Amino acid sequence: MTVRINPSILSADFVNLEDEVARIPNADLLHVDVMDNHFVPNLTFGQQMVGRLQDVSRVPLDLHLMIDDPDRWAPEFAETGAFSVTFHAEAALDVVATARRLREIGARAGLALKPGTAVEPYLDLLADFDQILVMTVEPGFGGQSFLDSTMPKLERLAERVKQTGLDVWLQVDGGITEETIVRAAEAGANTFVAGSSVFGREDPIAAIEALRDAALP
Ligand code: DX5
Ligand code: ZN
């Protein structure tokens, strides 16, 4: 089983981002939370900052867009050269058209679901996505507690991915620690975002390896 650990830069020191990015050379991807103060009550980065992060990071970028109108904006974020661009189902008008645009530009397409969003309407659309992000906290802030109530959704997705044989990564984001990662991995996740439990640690390299070990069966 492949386990990917994507540290979230939301928990890094925003005035030293170049140094912070250099602290996680063993990460699989760098998770970058884009927030617009509308879809979520918090504000972070725009395309210019994402482009600069891309320039200084040896680790490719995994963008998580917590913004309104992703149909319009997600392709522009993909143009920065990000490895993957994940947008929220709740905010999009046409999730399939937006995913196809992202793939055309060359980014992996991801669909994110808030804790209260049902997965059923999206189960037949998996072929258009490279990753599904099951939010394990309400989006907006780092440092919140993992919601176990989201695990049945992950199980349903894992079952469908297996049935279809598609190569869709299942990502979890929010409250991931060495304890909760075990439950998420058991439910079928293979891609784990961790903010405070990586950037909040003195030794982020060791923290990443500890999470990776904990996720392996
Ligand atoms: C929350 C963000 C997360 C956040 C996770 O809305 O999407 O990526 O950084 O932070 P932790 O791991 O501290 O819960
Ligand atoms: Zn995120």
Automatic annotation (TrEMBL):
A divalent metal cation binds at H31, D33, H64, D173. It holds the Pfam family Ribul_P_3_epim. It comes from the Bacteria. Its EC number is 5.1.3.1. It catalyses: D-ribulose 5-phosphate = D-xylulose 5-phosphate. The active site is at D33 (proton acceptor), D173 (proton donor). GO terms for molecular function: D-ribulose-phosphate 3-epimerase activity. Substrate binds at S8, H64, G140, F141, G142, G143, D173, G174, G175, G195, S196. InterPro entries: Aldolase_TIM, Ribul_P_3_epim, Ribul_P_3_epim-like, RibuloseP-bd_barrel. Catalyzes the reversible epimerization of D-ribulose 5-phosphate to D-xylulose 5-phosphate. Belongs to the ribulose-phosphate 3-epimerase family. This is Ribulose-phosphate 3-epimerase. The lineage of its organism: Bacteria, Pseudomonadati, Pseudomonadota, Gammaproteobacteria, Lysobacterales.
